[in-house]
C-alpha cells in the first residue's frame, strides 16, 4: 500500500494534481490548507481535513484505518504543533493511531515517538525553515514496517528526511 501525504498546497491545484498523478498512490491524505473548493481536489481515494485557511465543510480531524495501521489526520493548528508535537502524539495515542499526519508549520518532519510515527509532509508550495517544497510517501511493508520518503514537487528525493519505521 502506497499513501501520499501532502499539506499546505494553499490553492495551487496544479501542483497538487501533478503530485497526485506523479506519486501514483493508493490513497491520498491532505493535512489541510488546500484553500480551494472541495470539488477542485483530486478525484481519488482521499482523506482531507480543514486547515486554518480553509472554508470548506470537511472534518477538523479524521482517521483512516488500513492494514494494521490507523492514520490520524489533522492540520495541527489546534494542537499547537509550532510549539510541541506532544499534543498530536497524545491525541494519536488516545485514538490508538500508529501514524499521525499533520501540517501547518510548512516544515517536513518524520520521527517516531513511542508507538506513534509523526509525519508532517511540509508545504507543497511554500516551505518555511526548509529550503524546498515537499511531500511524503508512506509505503507499508511486511510486519508493520513503514518506509517514508520525502520528495520535491518535481519528484526529486529529499534524502535527509524520512526513513524506515516500525511503530
From TrEMBL:
Residues 1-140 form the Calcineurin-like phosphoesterase domain. Pfam families: Metallophos_2. Keywords: Metal-binding. It is an enzyme of class 3 (hydrolase). Its cofactor is a divalent metal cation. GO terms for molecular function: hydrolase activity; metal ion binding. InterPro entries: Calcineurin-like_PHP_lpxH, Metallo-depent_PP-like, Phosphodiesterase_MJ0936/Vps29. Its EC number is 3.1.4.-. Belongs to the metallophosphoesterase superfamily. YfcE family. This is Phosphoesterase. It comes from Melghirimyces algeriensis.
